[in-house]
Amino acid sequence: MDKQDTENDFEAMDDHMMSSLETPLRPDAFDLTDQEKITIIAGHFKEIMHTLGLDLTDDSLKGTPHRVAKMYVKEIFQGLHPDNKPVIRRFENKYMYNRMLVERDITLYSSCEHHFVPIIGKAHVAYIPGEHVIGLSKLNRIVQYYARRPQVQERMTMQIANELKQALQTEDVAVLIEADHLCVMSRGVNDVTSSTITAEYGGLFQEEHYRSEFLSHIRKK
Ligand SMILES: Nc1nc2c(ncn2[C@@H]2O[C@H](COP(=O)(O)OP(=O)(O)OP(=O)(O)O)[C@@H](O)[C@H]2O)c(=O)[nH]1
Ligand SMILES: [Zn+2]
């Protein structure tokens, strides 16, 4: 691929990211069942391994195509399927708790959509309840749902923030993600010390006071 192609790729990526927060999916993305997807992906992965020169009759390797396909569909990319979206029940804020609620250090395991290798880190989310609250674990589940698909960190951050705003019926939501990208660490520039931080601050979190309180909570150990 020459430099011009790479630049065009990035222009296409920029256009897409500006026009939509949605993960780019084909219109017929859910026509196949999970089982059909696993069978097809296993076949393709077998070809990849075969092309790499691996002996697929070897005891240790022969199950790998099916293992990888099942892992893609049922585990690390399960967040592509809307059926796996967490069901969030809103409760009335009967305690009248109107201060900040922070859920910090949420385990984040995602995959880079450019190289299909892991993005590993932590998400910190916060909101200021209005009339509604949701169960604490649902904050983690929303993070996991958007992480379990091929991602770029910026889009993942915005998708999580938007979902929280909808679930909580408030703009007063903050999301900060700090993550290590294996595509940066284990190949390419091979940098194992850098990490990537992205953040979205909605509503009151655009004000310095609320933002600093959030940041001070997530810095405390
Ligand atoms: N903005 C953004 N870029 C990412 C993310 N994850 C990976 N990338 C970058 O996507 C870019 C893809 O660039 P390319 O030049 O097409 O790929 P490449 O030749 O493998 O690039 P190198 O990683 O530099 O070797 C790389 O610079 C990655 O670091 C992400 O979450 N956000
Ligand atoms: Zn990557």
UniProtKB/TrEMBL annotation:
<keyword id="KW-0862">Zinc</keyword>
<keyword id="KW-0547">Nucleotide-binding</keyword>
<keyword id="KW-0479">Metal-binding</keyword>
<protein>
    <recommendedName>
        <fullName>GTP cyclohydrolase 1</fullName>
        <ecNumber>3.5.4.16</ecNumber>
    </recommendedName>
</protein>
<keyword id="KW-0342">GTP-binding</keyword>
<feature type="binding site">
    <location>
        <position position="112"/>
    </location>
    <ligand>
        <name>Zn(2+)</name>
    </ligand>
</feature>
<feature type="binding site">
    <location>
        <position position="115"/>
    </location>
    <ligand>
        <name>Zn(2+)</name>
    </ligand>
</feature>
<dbReference type="Pfam" id="PF01227">
    <property type="entry name" value="GTP_cyclohydroI"/>
</dbReference>
<dbReference type="InterPro" id="IPR043133">
    <property type="entry name" value="GTP-CH-I_C/QueF"/>
</dbReference>
<dbReference type="InterPro" id="IPR001474">
    <property type="entry name" value="GTP_CycHdrlase_I"/>
</dbReference>
<dbReference type="InterPro" id="IPR020602">
    <property type="entry name" value="GTP_CycHdrlase_I_dom"/>
</dbReference>
<comment type="similarity">
    <text>Belongs to the GTP cyclohydrolase I family.</text>
</comment>
<comment type="subunit">
    <text>Homopolymer.</text>
</comment>
<dbReference type="InterPro" id="IPR043134">
    <property type="entry name" value="GTP-CH-I_N"/>
</dbReference>
<feature type="domain" description="GTP cyclohydrolase I">
    <location>
        <begin position="42"/>
        <end position="218"/>
    </location>
</feature>
<dbReference type="GO" id="GO:0003934">
    <property type="term" value="F:GTP cyclohydrolase I activity"/>
</dbReference>
<dbReference type="InterPro" id="IPR018234">
    <property type="entry name" value="GTP_CycHdrlase_I_CS"/>
</dbReference>
<keyword id="KW-0554">One-carbon metabolism</keyword>
<keyword id="KW-0378">Hydrolase</keyword>
<feature type="binding site">
    <location>
        <position position="183"/>
    </location>
    <ligand>
        <name>Zn(2+)</name>
    </ligand>
</feature>
<comment type="pathway">
    <text>Cofactor biosynthesis; 7,8-dihydroneopterin triphosphate biosynthesis; 7,8-dihydroneopterin triphosphate from GTP: step 1/1.</text>
</comment>
